[in-house]
Write a structure and sequence with these properties.
By secondary structure, the protein is mostly helical. It has 24 helices and no strands. The chain is globular. 46% of the residues are buried. This is Sodium:proton antiporter. InterPro entries: Cit_transptr-like_dom, NhaD-like. It is a multi-pass membrane protein. Belongs to the NhaD Na(+)/H(+) (TC 2.A.62) antiporter family.
Length: 478
């Protein structure tokens, strides 16, 4: 954010969920050259710097943006009140709140399901299986990478990356070199896997909810996403030894209902897609209906708990199985609302602050400045490539917010391109995506910014290859 365009790009970047700036045609004021406008830019810039320094400051990222959003809108309200057009600002803030509510409820349901699967020990069982199979380092490198690519389209890239990182840390032990390169591989794979699914990343979810790309059209990005992962992975794998790590097998028993919760989650995804495709309602309506599936299943588990305990206890006593008696904890009650409380509330509140800050800056008129430069003066393909590079520095979520707020006139091919670049561009640096930032915390001192930076040329090769692949395979969409 040291030059004007980059800073305004960051600002516009966070200008997102506003899909259609209804206030622009309703008497909005151009305050880009005003004291209030400059003050808003400064406040947002300071807040976002604090967000980027979260790991070092130990300050949760939601706090600065929540405060900044309140101050920015207070200044806007004062100015619009003075000009007698406060109703324009009111419509703008209501529009932003509606957009945020859709994103909040959608993510809340998805996070609740992921939390439920974690509580039922599904992820622990997967981790134990991988550790206990006796794979060598190179095999684990490929296994964790491929699983990250496969799981992230459903479970989101952040959750997938943390799961696979836990496996790498357990197996790698004190082998810092292996842990670092394996974590880089996981970040690349999780971000690439999330790029071709609305459920894989917040950026793809926003594009889908905006109605710009249909659910099935995201599959056109599968091959480019796969290329984005495989190109750097093949090169990095050459530097991973085939030696055998020292690991001990651990038995993990799934809690009752674990597999059925996975089925319910898939059914919830299908419901959300159905609402969007058939009746053209926001996908969040289907997700909230899917939450009801989980609630009713939780009720079933609680009501049948005594009977399940008796059956398991009787079977264990009949077989004289002391170990089974000790494992009766796997038959435990299930509380949906406790799972809701375990959602990543700091992230959800951070999105609120981002959306409201962006909404305020858009109403001030800065969005038009960025849109004019990027999508009127540049070729859209090059603009979308730059969006991906910017996402490596700023984080892909605010960058995609910016593009959606601009609402440029783009072909389907270009909307898919910006979805791809914003999703996988964050892999270029460890701070460019939620997966990378989370792994720097989970593998502190073993997976680092500079450790990731060393492999950036290889990752950039995959980034370029995925763009070329998309332009070649999907040229009919441009």
């Amino acid at each position: 954010m040291k030059n004007t365009y980059l800073f305004v790009g960051v600002v516009g970047a966070v200008l997102s969920l506003l899909a259609t700036p209804v206030w622009a045609a309703a008497g909005g004021l151009d305050l880009t050259q005003s004291t209030v406008g400059y003050a808003a830019l400064l406040i947002f810039g300071v807040a976002y710097c604090l967000v980027m320094g979260e790991e070092y400051l130990q300050l949760r990222k939601s706090k600065p943006v929540l405060l900044a959003a309140g101050i920015i809108w207070l200044m806007i309200g004062f100015v619009y009140q003075q000009h007698g057009v406060i109703d324009v600002a009111q419509r703008a803030i209501e529009h932003n709140l509606l957009e945020y509510a859709e994103l909040l409820l959608f993510l809340l349901v998805a996070m609740t399901y992921i939390s439920a699967m974690e509580e039922r020990r599904l992820f622990d069982a997967l981790q134990a299986w991988m550790v206990g199979k006796g794979f060598n380092y190179r095999s684990l490198f490929w296994l964790t990478g491929i699983l990250s690519f496969v799981i992230s389209p459903i479970a989101d890239n952040l959750t997938t990356a943390l799961l696979m990182c836990a496996v790498v840390l357990k197996v790698g032990g004190s082998n810092i070199r292996f842990i670092n390169i394996a974590c880089i591989n996981i970040v690349i794979a999780a971000n690439a896997g999330g790029a071709f699914s609305p459920f894989g990343d917040i950026t793809t979810l926003m594009v889908w909810q905006a109605g710009l790309v249909s659910f099935m059209q995201f599959l056109d990005l599968f091959v480019p996403s796969l290329v984005n992962y495989l190109v750097p992975a093949v090169i990095m794998a050459l530097f991973v030894p085939k030696t055998q790590p020292n690991t001990a097998h651990e038995y993990v028993e799934l809690k009752r209902g674990a597999r059925r919760i996975v089925v319910l989650f898939i059914l919830t995804i299908m419901t959300a897609v159905g609402f969007h495709a058939w009746v053209h309602f926001p996908p969040v309506i289907g997700m909230m209906m899917g939450l009801a599936y989980l609630q009713f299943f939780g009720f079933f588990l609680r009501k049948t708990l005594p009977r399940s305990l008796e059956k398991k206890k009787a079977a264990a006593m009949a077989n004289n199985d002391d170990a089974a008696l000790q494992r009766l904890g796997s038959v435990v009650p299930f509380d949906v609302f406790k799972r809701v409380s375990h959602a990543e509330w700091d992230t959800l509140l951070f999105f609120y602050g981002v959306v409201m800050c962006v909404g305020g800056l858009s109403l001030l008129g800065y969005l038009g400045m960025v849109s004019e430069v990027m999508y009127s003066q540049w070729n859209p393909i090059w603009a979308n490539i730059v969006v991906g590079l910017l996402s490596a520095v700023v984080d892909n979520i605010p960058v995609m917010f910016a593009v959606l707020t601009m609402q440029p006139e783009l072909s389907l091919g270009n909307w898919l391109l910006v979805t791809l670049t914003a999703g996988v561009g964050g892999s270029l640096l460890s701070i460019g995506s939620a997966a990378g930032v989370a792994l720097m915390g989970a593998a502190h001192g073993k997976y680092t910014f500079f450790g990731h930076l060393k492999w950036m040329p290889v990752i950039a090769l995959g980034y370029a290859a995925s763009i070329v692949c998309h332009l070649w395979l999907n040229q009919h969409l441009f």
